[in-house]
């Protein structure tokens, strides 16, 4: 159990080690369950490795996710009610899908999203109510995917649900029972290894084996979202040289086709998607900024060249042309063997024979 004297899951020496950690995963937000499906492709670590105890030092992990569950109905919801009563300790709350604003339905008796039935009232339990019940008791609260982190597609301008991200709902200064802020792992869907790596970090932290998880101002893990798509993109050098694709299928930089990579915080081109393979620009797709708080509104229309790119790509054209010329010149020099490598009966390497018993010449006598 996390105490006030030992926040963030770091226990004192007198406390026993954590043997069991529960993960209560809500997919009842506005979403497509794509993040739950995505994590099944993770390998670093895989969800199987975490749940089957294959990783040294981890506590036993119990996962309650409706997409990956064996149980259903009332049997599935038993751990949820136990967690709400404070009987499931410690547990990590994962929220998938954007959070609708149920205050908009206060007068009409309806609701946007719910899961399960309240035995006391016989009425559906809304997603908002589950978050209200579980978040304050969780040792850590994680938003999985862009819908849960910042609202995503459902929160774009003109939506009827008032959808928002988890931090918008709970407050950006929210702290869990473990003293942690909300941890945002965006992506549409979330990159599988990114999310499972965060889960692994939290499990070690709850066990007292890791320091406090480092987050940026948007509550994203810094080691995953500290660099831009452009920083890790296979096409980044083409931008530097002013070489831009004009049609899809080209191996050149995709900025002029609508790629937002130079300003988007995401590691997918560097990490790939599955087993290091894939990642949007790596396979010819433009970056549309799906890990960013301003997605999708601030990145539309997706296929147009970003406003800043129009200026920067023109500015780099002259520079890039000069750089290409200089590099071509250097390449022409270093991309051929030195002249002294030959099969003629003479030594032309510049070696100077030494005196004192050493032959003065390696040339064959005529």
Give a short synopsis of this structure.
With 366 residues, the chain is of the alpha/beta class.
Description:
It is found in: Cell envelope. This is Hydrogenase expression protein HypE. InterPro entries: Cytochrome-c3_hydrogenase_C, NADH_UbQ_OxRdtase-like_20kDa, NiFe-Hase_small_C_sf, NiFe_Hase_small_N_sf, NiFe_hydrogenase_ssu. Residues 32-201 form the NADH:ubiquinone oxidoreductase-like 20kDa subunit domain. With 366 residues, the chain is α/β, with parallel strands linked by helices. The chain has twelve helices and seven strands. The strands form two sheets. It has a five-stranded parallel beta sheet with strand order 2-1-3-6-7, with helices on both faces. A two-stranded antiparallel ribbon has the order 4-5. It is elongated and about 100 Å long.
Write the layout of secondary structure elements.
Layout: E1 20-26, H1 34-39, H2 47-51, E2 60-64, H3 73-84, E3 91-96, E4 114-117, E5 124-126, H4 127-134, E6 140-144, H5 146-150, H6 166-170, E7 183-185, H7 192-206, H8 222-225, H9 229-232, H10 236-240, H11 268-271, H12 307-334
Parallel strand pairs: 1-2, 1-3, 3-6, 6-7
Antiparallel strand pairs: 4-5
Family: Belongs to the [NiFe]/[NiFeSe] hydrogenase small subunit family.
Domain Cytochrome-c3 hydrogenase C-terminal: 225-302
Protein name: Hydrogenase expression protein HypE
């Amino acid at each position: 159990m996390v105490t006030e004297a030992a926040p963030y899951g770091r226990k004192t020496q007198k406390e026993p080690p954590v043997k069991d950690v529960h993960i209560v995963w809500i997919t009842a937000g506005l979403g497509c369950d794509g993040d739950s499906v995505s994590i099944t492709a993770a390998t670093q670590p895989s969800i199987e490795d975490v749940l089957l105890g294959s990783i040294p030092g981890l506590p036993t992990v119990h996962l309650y996710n409706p997409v990956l569950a064996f149980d259903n109905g009332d049997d599935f919801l038993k751990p949820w009610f136990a967690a709400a009563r404070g009987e499931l300790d410690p547990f990590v709350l994962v929220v998938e899908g954007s959070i609708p604003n149920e205050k908009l339905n206060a007068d009409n008796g309806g609701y946007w999203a719910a899961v399960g039935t309240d035995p006391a009232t016989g009425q559906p339990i809304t997603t908002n109510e589950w978050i209200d019940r579980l978040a304050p008791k969780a040792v850590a609260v994680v938003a999985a995917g862009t819908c849960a982190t910042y609202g995503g597609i459902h929160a774009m301008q003109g939506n009827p649900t008032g959808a928002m991200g988890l931090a918008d709902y709970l407050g950006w200064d929210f702290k869990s029972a473990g003293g942690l802020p909300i941890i945002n792992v965006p992506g549409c869907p979330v990159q599988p290894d990114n999310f499972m790596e965060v889960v692994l970090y939290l499990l070690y932290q709850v066990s007292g084996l890791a320091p406090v998880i480092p987050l940026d101002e948007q509550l994203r893990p810094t080691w995953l979202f500290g660099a831009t798509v452009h920083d890790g993109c296979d096409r980044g050098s083409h931008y530097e040289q002013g070489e831009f694709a004009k049609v899809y299928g080209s191996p050149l930089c995709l900025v002029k086709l609508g790629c937002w990579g130079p300003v988007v915080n995401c590691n997918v081109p560097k990490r790939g998607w599955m087993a290091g393979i894939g990642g949007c620009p790596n396979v010819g797709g433009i970056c549309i900024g799906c890990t960013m708080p301003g997605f999708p509104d601030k990145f539309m229309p997706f296929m147009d060249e970003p406003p800043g790119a129009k200026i920067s790509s023109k500015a780099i054209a002259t520079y890039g042309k000069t750089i290409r010329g200089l590099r071509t010149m250097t390449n022409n020099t270093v991309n051929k063997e030195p002249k002294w490598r030959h099969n003629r009966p003479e030594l032309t390497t510049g070696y100077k024979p030494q005196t004192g018993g050493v032959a003065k010449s390696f040339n064959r006598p005529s």
